[in-house]
Design goal:
Largest sheet: 3 strands, mixed
Distance between the termini: 35 Å
Strand content: under 5%
Helix content: 55-70%
Structural class: mainly alpha
Number of helices: 25
Number of strands: 3
Shape: globular
Number of domains: 4
Length: about 625
């Protein structure tokens, strides 16, 4: 990315908002006008992206920490927090939208193919992320991980009460005195950030956008658990102390004492204020799960579908795709289950029976949890050994297995992934929840590993961040592309032979794919077809064989993240379609490694951009062959 001193003067005036544009110097007589135009267009694009990036990370500093943004784009970001107040959110939308409009004003003429793709991609993704805020005045755009829209700024899965502690524990480094100061500066701002989110929640409830009663209950449980823990056991303090010890800082005791005071007298009271308001609104809260009941809710769901799938496919069509996929996958599972002697009852009932067998569950003891982690490490090693057969380019960044902190276990899924930093200061992290080993039976744990680590999320993200593209273009991921690749990777693991000696694990793989198909049905069922929470839970249990508590957690996740769960299957189906088309067009010349390398090189892009680029690649390969 070029420095601002090289900006085209016209754009510099536009972006700065002041001064008269200065005419650019005329090209010398021996310069090709076409080359001059191309250089000017490139510089103009670089400038617009740099300004968008700086504004984005200024407005969403938590995203800068999560993604490991360079200081040049995110000055002081590690000392600040997102402003989730009504005024703060309005300012965020206005500032980012203005920079996005400046990017849209950059003509595509004179840009090379990669630059055109980057421009188109950022416009598509940013437009979609802002779309819910253009439809309604409630909720929080660009919130969780700096990407997702939340209809309820405080909920049980995300938002400031969950995301701030997670980011500070997992992503905020404390290796030097300066970084310790940054940590304390951010810690000091938590009460104001929480109070801002509380003000926004009050504002939204007054507009008629109250969370449902069951979400209020779950969110309050998370808030109370965090507030009730003694300050010296709070993760914001304990993780800071551990980082100080590892850094061996001379003034560690003084830093720790300051942190303890901030948690005791600032953070915990702010959480209690939120809890008090949740208690106040609980009796009057509705029970309906879907956002259809919110003001302009149907239009909001269309906007979240676009935001979370990169498509404008109607909810009714997505619902039918889900039903069709449920039928197909259930038929495949039936065959495998019968081969293992499970031939009585529905697929869901047979999965319930399998899940209750002690032989498939690690004991929920220290020894059992250690054995579970050892099995996951072996799965990662086995997958790593086979990567060269399916990928020409391998990630340079390592992935580490870690366990979810105790404070987050109750609201966290069985496992999830956090990306590495491009500078290598932080590895990719595969988090495993050890709250209860029954969450990860032996027939499900392998698929989770292949989804979250390799060849799934880590394979994609660790390669994407090393591509020659602006940082924002590499870190602002598409939901259906990212989750679609990880789900595709689950099926690829079977193709790689990772289930060759594990037929029960292959059943687990199909059950997880079935789960993603069920999500299409349930998400659209709640938000478009007005299913109740109970109807959605009943469907999940009957179709998949979930434990009731797992089904509840999933359904409540969809209630607060409308549309997000659609991205997995929508993205996977598109990637599989592109691969089938490549195989059909190229025949014996098809090389799976080349296909994967080409896809992963652009895998941070929106789904329409992926499709166009891959179809162009197929055509180029076909013509050259």
């Amino acid at each position: 990315m070029r420095p601002l001193s090289l900006l085209a003067p016209m754009l510099l005036a536009l972006l700065s908002g002041c001064g008269e544009p200065v005419p650019p110097p005329a090209p010398s007589s021996d310069t090709d006008p076409g080359i001059t135009m191309e250089i000017g267009a490139s510089q103009t694009l670089d400038a617009a992206i740099e300004q968008l990036s700086m504004t984005y990370f200024s407005q969403v500093p938590e995203a800068a920490t999560y993604a490991g943004a360079p200081e040049t784009l995110a000055v002081g970001a590690n000392t600040r927090l997102n402003d989730r107040s009504s005024a703060g959110i309005a300012a965020r939308i206005s500032a980012i939208d203005a920079r996005l409009n400046a990017l849209k004003a950059v003509p595509s003429e004179g840009l090379d193919r990669q630059q055109q793709r980057i421009r188109t991609n950022l416009i598509l993704l940013m437009d979609a992320a802002l779309e819910p805020a253009r439809v309604v005045d409630y909720g929080s755009p660009l919130d969780t991980y700096g990407v997702w829209y939340l209809p309820y700024v405080i909920n049980q899965n995300s938002g400031p009460t969950v995301d701030i502690p997670n980011i500070m524990e997992a992503q905020q480094s404390v290796r030097t005195a300066a970084e310790a100061d940054d940590y304390l500066a951010r810690l000091e701002q938590i009460p104001a950030a929480l109070d801002g989110a509380l003000e926004k929640l009050r504002h939204d409830v007054e507009l008629g956008a109250s969370p449902p009663d069951f979400i209020i209950s779950k969110a309050q449980a998370v808030v109370d658990a965090f507030a009730d823990a003694p300050a010296d056991q709070n993760v914001l303090y304990s993780s800071f102390v551990a980082k100080l010890a590892k850094a061996d800082l001379a003034e560690a005791n003084q830093y720790a004492a300051r942190a303890l005071d901030l948690v005791e007298n600032g953070v915990r009271p702010a959480y209690r204020r939120i809890s008090a308001y949740l208690t106040e609104i609980q009796p009057l809260a509705p029970h309906d799960a879907g956002i259809w009941r919110l003001p302009n809710g149907e239009a909001l769901y269309r906007a979240t579908i676009r935001h979370m799938t990169d498509t404008d496919v109607p909810a009714e069509q997505i619902h039918q795709i889900g039903l069709d996929e449920v039928a197909r996958i259930s038929a495949e599972m039936d065959v495998l289950l019968r081969a293992q002697g499970y031939d009585q009852g529905t697929v869901g009932e047979r999965m319930i029976a399998m899940g209750k067998e002690p032989r498939y569950v690690f004991p929920n003891t220290a020894e059992g949890k250690a054995a579970l982690l050892d099995s996951i490490r072996a799965q990662m090693a086995n997958a790593q050994a086979l990567l060269p057969e399916y990928f020409g380019i391998l990630p340079k960044h390592p992935v580490e297995l870690r366990t979810v902190p105790e404070f987050a276990q109750d609201s966290a899924p069985g496992g999830y992934y956090d990306p590495p930093t491009s500078d290598g200061s932080r590895p990719g992290i595969y988090w495993v929840n050890l709250r209860d080993t029954a969450m990860l039976p032996k027939f499900s744990a392998p698929t989770l590993t292949y989804h979250e680590a390799i060849p799934g999320h880590h394979m994609q993200v660790a390669i994407a961040i090393d591509q020659p593209a602006p940082f924002l273009a590499k870190s602002f991921f598409s939901n259906p592309t990212g989750e679609g690749w990880a789900l595709y990777a689950e099926a690829l693991a079977a193709e790689m032979g990772l289930y060759a000696d594990d037929p029960v694990g292959d059943i687990g793989r199909l059950r997880d794919e079935l789960h993603r198909a069920v999500r299409l049905v349930v998400d659209t069922g709640m938000h478009a077809k007005r299913w109740s929470r109970e109807q959605a839970i009943e469907y999940m249990i009957a179709t998949e064989g979930n434990e009731e508590s797992d089904a509840e957690s999933e359904v409540e996740r969809y209630a607060v993240w409308p549309g997000q769960a659609l991205g997995y299957k929508i993205g996977m189906l598109k990637i599989q379609e592109l691969r089938r088309d490549a195989e059909a067009a190229l025949g014996e010349d098809f090389d799976i490694r080349q296909f994967h390398d080409q896809l992963l090189a652009i895998s941070s892009s929106a789904l329409p951009v992926i499709e166009q680029e891959m179809r162009d690649w197929i055509a180029d390969q076909d013509s050259s062959g």
